[in-house]
């Protein structure tokens, strides 16, 4: 008997795997009737999941951790058994501001761009008005990647600029209307701002962290534990969708599906560029290929590395969003569930890493790593500043 499974999502290219799982028949093959519910803000996606109006959600990774820790609302433990994708975001400024910090039209050195941005931000602050930057949620990877880059290049994100929240589908509107000076948002909304002439991309998040964890499949922990027979087939369908996403022969098929009104309701050209890792930095220029701009499946990208959850918690602490505490650090890491990933995907021959945690930012050349099943080679996962993140070292800095 086919089981109906309801999953909430936002109109973003990185919602591709649930959409393709349904449209390409992978969910049906697993006995699931996947009912996809499109929302317009992460807050609504979160509420729908927590109050039982959906079974699972396409969600920004830090929000799953914040919900578990009870940041901003009563705590509800969530679990992440599958990562839906890495990166895919960009920082876009209004054109006159971008021209002061970068060579408009293509990628540059994000360290130098950040230093230039810091000088402009300080001048604006001294003049009495801080630059205002929009991110898609307080607890979003966009916010934490932006803050990491700002801190690393001379701007205090808590003191030198103002960071506000804008739902992704409205980010380009806010930039167009002058409500913000810049946005950090996912695809295709940077392209929308650029094509309107309202913005210029100055950096992609893949230039900040080559393997930044982005969207995840979030599930209430209690339901995941009690109804594993419902969720394991979903993970297998999503994995098959990931294989399809990286198949170049399916590019036009994927683009046409994603552009449909019930999904992104957007430009097929913009979506096609994203799938091909092409970024339109400024209107009137040719798109530029950015390696790993959106990383959806290769190199066990869907594996929920516990060390990625650890990095996100460290950024929450750095931002002042979470108090530093050893027990909370353990709870944050436990949100990511590599055990369930292995259990669900082992039977279909998926590559399964042997470890659940790693040194983030520690790989600069293709490196073979231990695996339980399959052969796994990981390529560069560097941060722009050359730093790395060791979850064990961070743990030693936290109070009990």
TrEMBL record:
Its main location: membrane. One of its GO terms (cellular component) is endomembrane system. This is Nitrate transporter. InterPro entries: NrtA/CpmA_ABC-bd_dom. The keyword Cell inner membrane applies. Keywords: Cell inner membrane, Cell membrane, Membrane, Transport. It comes from the Bacteria. It is found in: Endomembrane system. It holds the Pfam family NMT1_2. Gene3D superfamilies: Periplasmic binding protein-like II. Transmembrane segments: none annotated.
């Amino acid at each position: 008997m086919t089981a109906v499974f309801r999953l909430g999502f936002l109109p973003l290219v990185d919602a591709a795997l649930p959409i393709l799982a349904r449209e390409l028949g992978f969910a049906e093959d697993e006995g699931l009737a996947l009912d996809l519910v499109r929302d317009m803000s992460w807050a609504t996606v979160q509420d729908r999941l927590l109050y039982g109006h959906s079974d699972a959600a396409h969600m920004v990774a830090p929000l799953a951790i914040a919900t578990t820790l009870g940041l901003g609302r009563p705590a509800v433990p969530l679990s992440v058994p599958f990562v839906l994708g890495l990166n895919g975001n960009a920082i876009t400024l209004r054109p006159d501001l971008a021209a002061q910090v970068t060579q408009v039209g293509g990628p540059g050195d994000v360290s130098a761009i950040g230093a230039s941005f810091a000088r402009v931000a300080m001048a604006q602050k001294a003049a009495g008005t801080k630059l205002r930057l929009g991110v898609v949620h307080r607890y979003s990877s966009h916010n934490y990647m932006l803050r990491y880059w700002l801190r690393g290049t001379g701007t205090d994100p808590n003191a030198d600029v103002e960071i506000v929240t804008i739902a992704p589908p409205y980010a380009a509107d806010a930039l167009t209307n002058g409500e913000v000076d810049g946005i950090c948002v996912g695809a295709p909304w940077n392209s929308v701002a650029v094509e309107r002439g309202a913005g210029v991309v100055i950096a992609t998040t893949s230039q900040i962290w080559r393997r930044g964890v982005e969207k995840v499949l979030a599930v209430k922990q209690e339901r995941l534990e009690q109804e594993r027979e419902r969720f394991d087939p979903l993970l297998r369908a999503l994995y098959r969708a990931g294989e399809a996403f990286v198949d170049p022969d399916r590019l036009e098929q994927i683009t046409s599906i994603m552009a449909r009104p019930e999904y992104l309701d957007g430009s097929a050209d913009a979506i096609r560029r994203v799938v091909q890792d092409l970024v339109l930095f400024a209107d009137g220029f040719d798109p530029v290929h950015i390696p790993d701009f959106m990383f959806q499946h290769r190199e066990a990208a869907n594996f929920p590395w516990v060390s990625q959850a650890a990095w996100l918690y460290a950024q929450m602490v750095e931002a002042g969003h979470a108090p530093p505490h050893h027990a909370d650090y353990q709870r944050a890491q436990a949100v990511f569930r590599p055990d369930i990933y292995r259990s669900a995907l082992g039977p279909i021959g998926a590559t399964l890493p042997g470890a659940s945690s790693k040194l983030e930012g520690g790989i600069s050349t293709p490196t073979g790593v231990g695996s339980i099943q399959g052969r796994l080679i990981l390529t560069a996962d560097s941060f722009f500043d050359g730093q790395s993140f060791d979850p064990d070292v961070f743990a030693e800095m936290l109070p009990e």
